[in-house]
Amino acid sequence: MLQNVPGALRQLITMTSEKYHLDFVLLDMSPSISATNANILMGSDFFIIPCAPDYFCYMAIESLIKVFPKWCSTYDNLRKAEVFKNAIYKMNDTVPKFLGTIQQRYRPRNGSPVKAFSEWIDDINKIVAEKLVPVLDENGMLIQKRTNYNLINIADFNSLIAQSQMNNTPVFELTQEQVEKTGSVWENMKRNRDDFSVTFETLAKTIIALTN
């Protein structure tokens, strides 16, 4: 039965999607280079790399430049193995395609990242475009060539996330009664709430356009 392990998760997601009529299923992977993550990624159709504007993220991108070719090679060999060809739960017969990065967890000022974060965002965008993308292209993991692979910047929405979790309500549907704030504090939170909604709607439309 071990022959079914590599394709089992994808089969489960496919069956769940069909039952509940889901067009997209997003999997939030742990930040590790593990066999489990390799199986999740290589069983996916597309993937996004979430980034934080700092040195550690930059180093992580450098690691992925080396890791992705190894995962592609490993799973290409698995697909060719007779034992996996005869599995009930089939492996994905194509490699996942890179949609882009998301820059998040930064402090904004006047609608843009402050200088320290902005510089790291530029550096990460550069290494993605100049070093990661060519490697992905060589391994068939690039959905399309373009000049900018950063899908969107998502600022730190601070207490809105906590309020969302506490009220079991999406950030963009939080009400004044739920956040229990008044005056300028509420007006600022309301503005951030509406910005949050616009940001994620823009991201959703971009993903739909790319995957279509």
Give the structure's gist in a few sentences.
With 212 residues, the chain is mainly alpha-helical. It has eight helices and five strands, in the order H-H-E-H-H-E-E-E-H-E-H-H-H. The chain folds into two domains: 2-156, no CATH class; 159-212.
Structural features, described:
This protein has 212 residues and is mainly α. It folds into two domains: 2-156, no CATH class; 159-212. It is 57% helix and 11% strand. The chain has eight helices and five strands. A three-stranded parallel beta sheet has the order 1-2-5, with helices on both faces. The longest helix has 29 residues, at 183-211. 19% of the residues are buried. The model has no long low-confidence stretch (mean pLDDT 90).
What brief labels describe this structure?
3-stranded parallel beta sheet; 212 residues; 11% strand; 2 domains; two-stranded antiparallel ribbon; mainly alpha
| Share of β-strand residues | 5-15%
Strand order of the largest sheet: 1-2-5
Report the radius of gyration as a whole number of Å.
20 Å
- Tell me, rounded to a whole number, the average pLDDT: 90
Number of helices: 8
Low-confidence spans: pLDDT under 50, at least 5 residues?
A: none
Q: Indicate how many domains the architecture comprises.
A: 2
Q: What composes the largest sheet?
A: 3 strands, parallel
Annotation, overall tally of beta strands: 5
Question: How much helical structure, as a percent, in the residues?
Answer: 55-70%
Which series of helices and strands comes N to C?
A: HHEHHEEEHEHHH
Distance between the termini: 35 Å
Oligomer: single chain
| Class from secondary-structure proportions | mainly alpha
Any idea what the shape is? globular
